[in-house]
Amino acid sequence: MADKAKFIEDIYKGYTFKGSSITLGGAMLDKEAQTNSLIKIPLKMMNRHGLIAGATGSGKTKTLQILAEQLSANSVPVLLMDIKGDLSGIAAASAGHPKIDERHEKIGIPFEAGTSPVEFLTLSDEKGARLRATVTEFGPVLFSKILDLTDTQSGIVAVAFKYCDDNSLPLLDLKDFRKVLQWMTGEGKDEVQGEYGRMSTSSTGAIIRKIVELEQQGADIFFGERSFDVDDLTRLDENGKGMVSILRLTDIQDKPKLFSTFMLQMLAEVYASFPEEGDLEQPKLVIFIDEAHLVFQNASKALLEQIEAIVKLIRSKGVGLFFVTQNPTDIPDDVLGQLGMKIQHALRAFTAKDRKAIKLSAQNYPDSDYYDVEELLTELGIGEALVTVLNEKGIPTPLAHTLLRAPQSRMDVLTDKEIDAIIRKSVIINKYNEEIDRESAYEVLNEKIELSQQKEHQAELQKQQEKAKKVTSRSRRSEKSIIEKVTSSSAGKTIIREVTRGLLGALGIRTTRRRSKNSWF
User: Fold this and answer.
1) What is the C-alpha to C-alpha distance for residues 110 and 288, in angstroms, rounded to an integer?
2) Residue 473's pLDDT is what?
3) Which of 24, 272, 278, 443 has CA atoms 20 to 30 A from the CA of 168?
4) Which CATH number fits domain 4-15+62-132+225-432: 3.40.1010.20, 3.40.50.300, 3.40.220.10, 3.40.640.10?
5) pLDDT given for residue 334 in this prediction
């Protein structure tokens, strides 16, 4: 048996903060809840990023829900990636339950049902305000990394962006970019290559195939206007609560390319547009990325490097990132090393590979005098987790086996009618769901191609007309030449003379006859 008094003292010292904090749950020792030994997280450290990990059914999603609603209550806006479709309940109050009351009694805090203000967003045909971004906003570097291009292909992309900038051609969607590539190696080849150098048609063909692959995952819906303004993620409601923006992704689980494309663009846009903030008393925005393995599993090395760079730098913008996944090993080491808060739910050891993964996972947590971490990882109950966060000085807190509080909101999805009611109240949905298709590179280059084709057609017609004139002129000259040859020859002269005599003779006979007839009267 561990020293209970010392444990409670260590927990109290480790999780008592001077500034604002949120309560996650209560500490446990020897699998028993230690009432009033509260596990808290300082708001000041919520931009130091975090990890929520655990096997399916261990309670990760509910932990995410708890954190989101507590942040919202403290005027911190939240963005949730809802891939499984089970986070909408945060907009409705919990109906309560005797087991919830029992849990909170063990923790030492009363249970209060509550709601959070919600805005639904979508990348596809789900209900909500549509998220879009233009190709121009990605820029050549990020766009090349998303497509996983070679250096040569990336150079062509850079030239395409430069050509469009120099010629005021808006790059809004994927068809714009595809048309530019076709123009650069087609009708506009001489113009482009004279200014920017020669480009291989095989390389541009490879880029176009990559674009088609992206389109097949639904990216043609994502690229375009109106671009989403990330400042709309940082709104507060009329009561001062942080807006919980729920991005509904249930229909793109099998489209990791689209998901990672969106995530990278969103993070890059937030980093580029938010001002440097330094150390704030609480973050401006916290983003929870559920099923985070989808971001990393198919990402190229270049894309991973870009994500790692943003994770390291975005903290200074007052933004916190939380990755939610089954196992810490799903997250690249360089990213995992940046996550100051870790909430580890139960892991399952069904195979030798699982046991090895558990051993590696245990090494991600501080040493503890009170727990055998490797053993405890497989014994955690639903709604229990191992927790370590950063205190206000940035020092990791003691590892705590935690009985998590229950969400104040509904632990279930909203009905379609409830979702429709929230969408009707949205102040941004009309702004982003308006269809905009202004003139861009696609239309401008199509006009150029049509004009070029018309000129070519007119030139061809003129060429044919000139050819016809030459043929007619040549035919006339040929006929004249034949006549001249015939008339100049002795045989020709004889023939003409005889024909003339015949004609004159016939005329003479008619004259005689006419005269003879007249003489009868």
Assistant:
1) 26
2) 67
3) 272
4) 3.40.50.300
5) 87
